[in-house]
Amino acid sequence: MPARHDTADLILTGATVLTMDPTRPEAAAVAVTDGEITAVGTAADVGALRGRDTEVVDLGGAALLPGFVEAHGHPASMALTIAPPALDVRPFVAPDAASVLERVRAAVRGAPRAPLAAYGVDPLLQRGLPSLTRELLDELHPHGPLLVLSNSGHAAWANTATLRAAGIDRTTPDPPGSWYVRDASGEPTGEAHESVAVEHLMRTVMADRLDPGALHTALRWAFDQHARVGITTSSDMACPPDLVPALRAAAEAPDANLRVRAWLIGTPALAASACTAPFTDEPSAAMYGTVGAKLWADGTPWQASIATTFPYLDTEAARRTGADPCGGGHGAMNYTAGQLAQLVETFTEAHVPVATHVHGDVTCEAVLGAYARAARRDPDRMRALRPRMEHCGAVNGEQYLRAAGLGATVSLFMDHIRWWGDVLADDLYGPEVAARWMSARTAWDAGLRVSLHNDGVCTPTDPLSGVATSVTRRSSSGRVHGAHQALTVEEALRAVTVNAAWQLHLEDHVGMVRPGMRADFAVLDTDPRAVPPGRLRENVHVTGTYLSGRRTWSAG
User: CB-hemisphere CA count at 13 Å for 333?
Assistant: First the structure.
């Protein structure tokens, strides 16, 4: 039993320890000193490190796992959009159109002239939601700016006061990879799509939330939401460069409860300055680091902004996304293949890892082409940078095999199936596409290191939910979409621990319970392997979280 200290600061015992370490998959106790795991083994062996001042915690038969790693999170976006007192109208808190409109009207009554931003509408889940025209938003908030953001974060709708405050008119050019919808005369309608355009509107309306004190408080709230579900390390997968100081300060605070690795919004301007941009070289175990650049090759099926070989169904719901089923309805990319390849090449030449948002199978061809072009210059460097593909809704098996050959890695948004599986099957693409959406088994069998994620604000942050969905492929209604694409429980747990840590370039420090690693733990009331797959969501819960040996959350 490896040990580097005569006595431990902390001993956790009375547990089934699922280490994720192939050299010792299971143990009964763990010792911690100075925030680091110093011993893993039997209760008797680890107990020999008990000293006069050692804290001993008997977990009473609970399961102890490595702290969960959120491979694709958005703590900064959570802080800006849903941290109290934000106006949260996501379908998980406002399930129908009436509750959305009432929440907005109540906020306007409380602050009739203040700028307001409502985050999270989803017409596919909140049935009956009216079209969010500028005229409707002017009616809802006649005396101040109002911005409504989609739950996906890929679209926003602004009233006249917001457009005026943002300086957007018929002469405003579309930002790279984004666009403002315009009427027949060229006037902006108030609708905006993709990250740069949406972020510009957000900053116009949410200026008060960027106050340093308010932002720090909101970030701490966002970090707390991660700790409550066993997450000890998270990426921030689209951090604006000017928010890095606030994110770093929150992560490096003495009582911080989340380790953060940021990927900055990968605009052409950032690519042009990549050699001098704020990419950092902190020690790998540091509480904060800026790792790479996030690109958006396409958008979301919920706004018809992904490029696919298969069309949308001819349904009212599909038309609400902006698709034209009668005209083909295959969607589009945010960049041309050449533009995307140039972005990827510029970042990789500067030794900056890239993570590319991709859903459509047509879009994936462009992403793989860009990665292959960058790899031709230096294949070893490309593999070392671990280029990522994010979400991957419609990516197919042949594409996964090519990705593996390039040294790429994938992170899957499994709770798409939980929340939108029925929508994909009945309203957008049909049951065959829904059955292979987020094809986790195919990706895993292609030899890729697969992680699972919750995508921050887009669904409730909860790794165990993604685990349950990946194992059952069950939607919230109970329907199963693509049982052949399910992972095993053991595979799914690796996908939210050791595989995710590898994607964040932290595999030597987090993701396993092994001597020398940081003492990051998630305590579960039940061993997930002992529960029927269909009962995971109901029967397995996080009861405690430890970061570097310090308890950051407890159900008790």
Answer: 22
DSSP state of 443: H
Residue 26 CB contacts under 8 Å (≥ 6 apart), including other chains = 16, 17, 18, 19
Mean pLDDT over each residue of the chain, to the nearest integer = 94
- Asked whether the beta carbons of 291 and 505 are under 8 A apart, the reply is yes
Element (H, E) at 138: helix 134-140
CA angle 23, 27, 33 (to 5 degrees): 95
Choice between 456 and 28, residue whose per-residue pLDDT is larger = 28
Q: Which two tokens stand for residue 523?
A: 């305590």
CA-to-CA distance for 521 and 523, rounded, in angstroms? Answer: 6
Q: Which residue has the higher pLDDT, 327 or 70?
A: 70
As a 3-state breakdown, the chain gives helix, strand, coil percent values, each rounded to 5, of 40, 20, 40
The confidence band for 169, taking pLDDT boundaries of 50, 70 and 90, is very high
- Is the pLDDT at 139 greater than 70? The verdict is yes
Report helix angle 244-252 to 212-227, nearest 10: 50
First to last CA, the chain: 32
Quick one: pLDDT at residue 408? 98
**304 closest CA partner among 292, 315, 295:** 315
> What would the DSSP string read from start to end of 239-306?
E-GGGHHHHHHHHHSTT---EEEEEEE--HHHHHTTTTSS-----TTSSEEEEEEEEES---GGGT-S
CA 436, CA 473: separation in Å to the nearest integer? Answer: 10
pLDDT one-digit tens code per residue, 185-228 = 999 999 999 888 999 999 999 988 899 999 999 999 999 999 99
Inter-residue contact 91 to 151 (CB < 8 Å): yes
What is the spatial distance between Cα 91 and Cα 150, in angstroms, rounded to a whole number? 10
Tokens of residue 231, six digits: 């997450």
Predicted confidence band of residue 275 (pLDDT cuts 50, 70, 90): low
Mean predicted confidence (pLDDT) in 368-382: 96
What is the distance between the alpha carbons of residues 145 and 164, in angstroms, rounded to a whole number?
Answer: 9
Q: With a cut of 60, say whether residue 59 has pLDDT above it.
A: yes
Note whether 485 and 104 are within 8 A (CB): no
- At 550, the amino acid letter reads R
Residues 477, 330, 152, 291, Cα dihedral to 10°: 120
